[in-house]
């Protein structure tokens, strides 16, 4: 997760992620409850991560699941997240966040050698989405996961669209994670998507928490007021990890629409 002065998250346009009497987030119960269980195939997986900490916030359960099976997981680190705090020197912040990400990924079972860093500009990923497409195609993994293309951050959305384009080229099965959508999207919009859930054991939940704790620059006030507060982090306590899977990897019409959308300004948060 990352934010610049121009791309800070808006105030929630729907409900806050507070629990109802049954323990479900208000407004999301009708969408989340019927989501079928997903047992991901034990196949090589490429994970597209726009900013350090997104590997935990959206994909932490899946990464652990695949690595515990001995499955190869390659992480495409799109940016260093060096614009998350405008008042902190970007070179210093980028160095800090790269280290945090390496330690978090190690907690999830991914070593430094499996991380491919693109070094794209934080907040301007859409300008070089082709680099993400090329990296995904280069790994040619049968499974690709990326942020949803409507996840309310310009870098998340560009990464998701790049995964759609790359998946259409390679025939990979593509799955899309959610983060800002939980607090910025009307649940009714996701009701028309195919949402699936990956059940998480207590061990996988603990792994996600251990990994996010490595991102001290985002969860503590060490260098600036923390961007990730308790409400935003609530999905890390959920016992399922959710993915959107409505896009078929070889749907040419969807591919054409994805390519066309890349020349328009990003939806949600602006650069």
Question: Please, could you describe this protein's structure?
Answer:
The protein is 36% helix and 14% strand. The protein is an alpha/beta fold and 271 residues long. α4 links the parallel β2 (73-79) and β3. α6 (154-170) packs antiparallel against α11.
Question: In one word, what is the shape?
Answer: globular
Global Rg: 17 Å
- Oligomer description: single chain
Strand content: 5-15%
For the biggest β-sheet, the strand order reads 3-2-1-4-5-7-6
Structural class: alpha/beta
Number of helices: 11
Low-pLDDT parts are: 4-19, 247-271
- How do the helices and strands follow one another from N- to C-terminus? HEHHEHEHEHEHHEHHEH
Round the mean pLDDT to the nearest integer and report it.
83
Give the tally of β-strands: 7
Distance between the termini: 14 Å
Portion in helices: 25-40%
Biggest pleated-sheet summary: 7 strands, mixed
Summarize the SSE layout with pairings:
Blueprint: H1 29-32, E1 45-49, H2 54-57, H3 60-68, E2 73-79, H4 90-108, E3 115-120, H5 129-139, E4 143-147, H6 154-170, E5 173-177, H7 181-184, H8 187-190, E6 195-199, H9 202-212, H10 216-219, E7 240-244, H11 252-261
Parallel strand pairs: 1-2, 1-4, 2-3, 4-5
Antiparallel strand pairs: 5-7, 6-7
